[in-house]
Write a structure and sequence with these properties.
The chain is an alpha/beta fold. 52% of the residues lie in helices and 11% in strands. The chain is elongated and about 70 Å long. InterPro entries: Cro/C1-type_HTH, DUF5753, Lambda_DNA-bd_dom_sf.
Length: 285
């Protein structure tokens, strides 16, 4: 596939265009489903980009919506074809969070709050291995290795010289204090965190224990924003058996406001680097 084709994003864009056509026609998803003799849930999944869209689906939907401009139909059909191609992550086989990886790969900026561990995009190999083995105790060595390789491949978004991801992290002090792997692993990880946090496009802030209660106590989350204005921002919440993606403007706004409060309560970027550096020295004793 072409290097610049992201099937996850193509599905979202195509789904958005199909939803606009339906709304312009004044039809409900239930009415469209009845016309095509399919389930309403299928129409919803097509529109939210969670399901691959075939060219036949596009043709049938355009017929229902009365789209007469063949250029529009052809454009949507082409998007459908691209949405069924594979992203780089498919080379690793079945990846449970492939939708998120597709979004992260295309994102222009990413804001993350993490309370227990260093975010994956800033993890060293040794730290990542310890985290994965600890959180997935029944995983085979092969499964652990695959997850590590995927995580390190994802990190190329941070180091991409052409268009590095704008990455903002707020992390709880507990992520620095919990010994993951060993003291040597932690020292290496925290030193790397200081190094990465010094880059212009990466901001790392620590939320110290003394900050007390804060909005992040409700759980971890990430906010992804995209360079194309037609791609709505997404709030990602990771789950044990399934993940949650929030795209409604009111939801994104709510989490964005929460993130601003976390940034305000956290140490500054400069103070955070010193805080992390001091914590790394403690592991060297």
């Amino acid at each position: 596939m072409a290097a610049n084709v992201n099937p996850t994003v193509r599905r979202r864009r195509l789904g958005s265009e199909l939803r606009k056509l339906r709304e312009t026609k004044g039809m409900t998803a239930e009415e469209v489903a009845a016309r095509l003799l399919v389930s309403q849930s299928k129409i919803s999944r097509l529109e939210n980009g969670r399901r691959s869209i075939s060219q036949r689906d596009v043709r049938d939907l355009c017929g229902v919506y009365g789209v007469e401009d063949q250029r529009i139909v052809d454009s949507l059909m082409h998007m459908a074809k691209e949405s069924r191609q594979q992203g780089w992550w498919h080379a690793f086989g079945d990846v449970p969070y492939s939708v998120y990886i597709g979004l992260e790969t295309e994102a222009e900026s990413l804001r993350v709050y993490d309370s227990l561990v260093v975010p994956g995009l800033l993890q060293t190999r040794n730290y990542a291995e310890a985290v994965i083995e600890g959180t997935l105790p029944e995983a085979t060595p092969e499964q652990v290795d695959k997850r590590i390789d995927i995580r390190l491949r994802r990190q190329e978004r941070i180091t991409d010289p052409a268009s590095p991801l704008r990455f903002w992290v707020v992390m709880d002090e507990s992520a620095l204090r919990r010994v993951v792997g060993s003291k040597d692993v932690m020292r290496e990880q925290l030193e790397y965190l200081v190094q990465m946090g010094s880059q212009a496009h990466v901001t790392v802030q620590v939320l110290p224990y003394e900050a007390g209660a804060h909005p992040g106590m409700s759980g971890n989350f990430a906010i992804l924003e995209f360079p194309d204005a037609t791609d709505s921002s997404v709030v990602y919440i990771e789950g044990v058996t399934s993940d949650l993606y929030l795209e409604k403007p009111v939801d994104v706004h709510g989490y964005s406001v929460m993130y601003e409060h976390l940034r305000a309560q956290a140490l500054s970027a400069e103070a955070s680097r010193q805080f992390i550096a001091d914590a790394a020295k403690e592991y060297a004793r």
